[in-house]
């Protein structure tokens, strides 16, 4: 078994949809990013890549690439999961912490877990999503950004 850690942060801006964990969240601001800015799926993708020793998502989806513009982050996560499978690994479990002052996200946990589990191809019980505030400190605490941290375990499977 191997473990990977992922992190991502994006600024909140007007004129963008807020997408977290593959779910559109009703909010007047969205995350600025090359793709849809989904910090949850980006941090999970990076955690999987870390666990299998294959770098980060910027290698596979460069920020200056036209094909990355506006990309649905479920596509990114799906690509990473397929890469892990080709390398002989399967995802065991995922634990995500979203750091956001606003909006409140607890009502979205179950649907995020369902979407993440569906893209990764694991049971919902193997996905955990939670959120914390930054108690008013720094850019996240001022409501200027949202971040996510993820820990993923993968298991080598016989090819």
Tell me about this structure.
By secondary structure, the chain is of the alpha+beta class. It has one domain (2-156): 2-C-methyl-D-erythritol 2,4-cyclodiphosphate synthase (60s Ribosomal Protein L30, Chain: A). It is 30% helix and 32% strand. It has helices at 39-52, 57-60, 73-86, 109-120, 138-141, and strands spanning 2-14, 18-20, 23-25, 29-31, 89-99, 127-132, 145-156. The protein has a 5-stranded mixed β-sheet with strand order 4-1-7-5-6. The protein has a two-stranded antiparallel sheet with strand order 2-3. It is globular, with a radius of gyration of 15 Å. The two termini are 15 Å apart. 42% of the residues are buried.
